[in-house]
Amino acid sequence: MGNNNQKKLKRKEMLKNKRIEEQLKDENTIEQINKILLCGTGDSGKSTMIKQMRILYCDGFPSEQVQLYKNAIQKSLRVNMKMLIQNGKSLGIHINDKVNKQLSEEYLTNFPTYKRNGVYCNKEVYTLKQLWHDQSIQTVWKNRSEIQVPENLDYYFNNLEKYCSPNFKPTNEDIVLFRIPTTGIVKINFHSQDTKWEIIDVGGQRSERRKWIHHFQDVNLVFFIIAINEFNKKLYEDQTINRMNESITLCKNILNNKYFKKTDCSLVFTKTDLLKRSLQKTEFKRYYSKYDGENNYEQVSEYIQKLFIKTIKKKNKRQVSSHLICATENNEVEKIINITIRKYLERKPISII
Ligand SMILES: Nc1nc2c(ncn2[C@@H]2O[C@H](COP(=O)(O)OP(=O)(O)OP(=O)(O)O)[C@@H](O)[C@H]2O)c(=O)[nH]1
Ligand SMILES: [Mg+2]
User: Which PROSITE patterns match (predicted)?
Assistant: First the structure.
């Protein structure tokens, strides 16, 4: 009888301990947030990935951000038309059409006075449309790798009336395709495969990079983002440097940093759509003379991936993967995030929330 009571007491005690252990485990795992750090040079597509994450996991963009993008998109039409006209002159591409030439001169002198409340008058919309369709301006646009203009400018100029309208409200696509260079740090939290994650976006321009170090600790996955089409472009911060070479050097420095010795890393090559377009008119070999393959997407993209992969040391201590994506396509970003997290969790089983 006494023995039985003792056994019951022992079992009760064991159950109690087990409950406490489970509770403690729960408390620890609730706190467990895995970190993904996005890094890479300016304009490589880091924030584009973050925007896609917002759409996928956070119900899209808050109204203040939508308003911010509306103002920035509208302003960029003026600023970039001015850039196209002026850069055309420095590239030796002058507007031949007499009427358009006159319009362009007028626009350069008058455009500051157009800025009334950010609203476009009919005359300005007409001028922008006329100039965008001008043959010489189109030639400048075709030579855009020589100058610093935003990648997806044609998307906005081809639908000018919409973007110049005071009632225009940016869609998710309008926001994803538009670039506002990041200054500072942006973080987003999300759940994936029963685990909690935080993804961190940093500014990629040279002046921003010194801030990165503060986020190197406790990173579970590093995504190094590379715009695969930038083999023929010059760096915004220093026009004597080739953008892809800058990216290779940065990749080498960051991914071989002592903090990431054992951290899994993914090389994410964005802008595959733009590389395909660019190879139709540009010889890759002109920029990378050692390349002896065909001038097609498959071979060039493989070669570029190898240029980056070979800079990464001690691959045996961590997993290194490489992905080709068009970051403006939501499903492509979702796919690589899911694959990378799954592989990480398979290798490093962690407590489930
Ligand atoms: N067509 C196309 N455009 C892309 C792709 N990825 C990014 N972009 C565009 O490239 C531009 C720059 O992208 P961001 O994501 O702002 O670049 P970033 O790396 O955050 O730049 P910083 O903030 O300066 O470091 C944006 O206009 C994007 O829409 C892509 O795969 N295809
Ligand atoms: Mg950014």
Answer: G_ALPHA (PS51882)
Q: Is the pTM higher than 0.80?
A: yes
Neighbours of ion ligand 2 (CB under 5 A): 46-47, 182
Total H helices, total E strands in the chain: 13, 6
**Tens-digit pLDDT string for the chain (353 aa):** 566 777 777 777 777 777 666 665 555 555 589 999 999 999 999 999 999 999 999 989 999 999 999 999 999 999 999 999 999 998 999 999 999 999 999 988 887 666 655 678 888 899 999 999 999 999 999 999 999 999 899 999 999 999 999 899 999 999 999 999 999 999 999 999 999 999 999 999 999 999 999 999 899 999 999 999 999 999 999 989 999 999 999 999 999 999 998 899 999 999 999 999 999 999 999 999 999 999 999 999 999 999 999 999 876 678 899 999 999 999 999 999 999 999 999 887 544 43
CATH code 3.40.50.300 for 32-61+182-347? yes
Which residue puts its alpha carbon closest to atom 21 of ligand 1? 43
**Residue 229 Cα to ligand 2 middle (Å):** 17
Q: How far apart are CA 336 and CA 270, in angstroms?
A: 12
Q: Cβ contacts of residue 198 below 8 Å, gap of 6+?
A: 33, 34, 35, 36, 187, 188, 189
Residue ranges of domains in the chain: 32-61+182-347, 63-176
Structural domain 63-176, CATH architecture: Orthogonal Bundle (1.10)
> What is the DSSP annotation of 266-325?
EEEEE-HHHHHHHHTT--GGGT-TT--S-SSHHHHHHHHHHHHHTT---GGGS-EEEEE-
The answer to whether the beta carbons of residues 205 and 42 sit under 8 Å apart is: yes
What ligand is nearest to the CA atom of residue 51? 1
93 CA to middle of ligand 2, Å? 31
Sheet holding 264-270, edge to edge: 185-192, 195-202, 33-39, 221-227, 264-270, 320-324
- Ligand 2 centroid to Cα of residue 180, in Å, is 7
Intrachain domains 32-61+182-347 and 63-176 with the same fold: no
